[in-house]
Amino acid sequence: MPAGVIRGPKSEQMWKRAKAVATQGYPGLETTNSDRFYAIVMTIYKAMCKKHGCAPADESTSLLLGRLEICEDINEYI
């Protein structure tokens, strides 16, 4: 499962379902062309999320700004 994209138990459940659907629809593709397989899984996952709303709740603006400030502070020391 892609790090940073799939967050939360509902998202993980949807990812597993999307992977199962892709495995059933494209047997053997995971081993022969993993990049294509995971692109298909991601497409299915996004469609499922759009229909079932599996993405985590949006972060507040203040929380996002706080994260940006931390990143800017770290970049000053690098």
Number of helices: 4
What is the residue-mean pLDDT, rounded to a whole number?
74
Q: Span from first to last CA?
A: 30 Å
What is the number of beta strands?
Answer: 0
What portion of residues is helical? over 70%
The arrangement of helices and strands along the chain is HHHH
Q: What Rg, in angstroms, do the CA atoms define?
A: 17 Å
Largest sheet: none
Strand coverage percent? under 5%
The overall number of domains is 1
Q: Which structural class do you get from the secondary structure elements?
A: mainly alpha
Low-confidence stretches: none
Q: Rough shape?
A: globular
Describe this protein's structure.
This protein is mostly helical. It has one domain. The protein is 73% helix and 0% strand. The chain has four helices and no strands. It has helices spanning 9-25, 29-32, 34-52, 61-77. Helix 1 (9-25) packs across helix 3. The relative contact order is 0.13. The model has no long low-confidence stretch (mean pLDDT 74).
